[in-house]
Design brief:
alpha+beta; Arc Repressor Mutant, subunit A; 2 domains; 4 helices; 3 strands; elongated
Length: 84
């Protein structure tokens, strides 16, 4: 869904079609993206159009960068435990 929205705004039905999922499922996924401030929707008439919110992705990137060293250490420990 996020990959599709990278190409530009899309309606809920346009998002559902290639995924083979229901409009209800798409709406549920969009709700999560909206709560995370990664997407927004605007209803125009009977059509709900969705778009990505780049500011949300900038915040996500900042958050992930701040935790990268910790994740690297944990993955290295896991590899040691698994004999890697």
């Amino acid at each position: 869904m996020v990959e599709r929205l990278r190409a530009g705004p899309a309606s809920v039905s346009q998002l559902a079609e290639p995924l083979g999922i229901t409009l209800t499922a798409v709406t549920q996924h969009l709700k999560v993206l909206e709560e995370a401030k990664l997407a927004s929707t605007l209803k125009t008439g009977r059509v709900r159009v969705c778009r990505l919110e780049t500011a949300g992705f900038a915040l996500l990137e900042t958050w992930a960068r701040a935790r990268r060293n910790e994740w690297d250490r944990r993955l290295e420990r896991l590899g040691d435990l698994l004999g890697g």
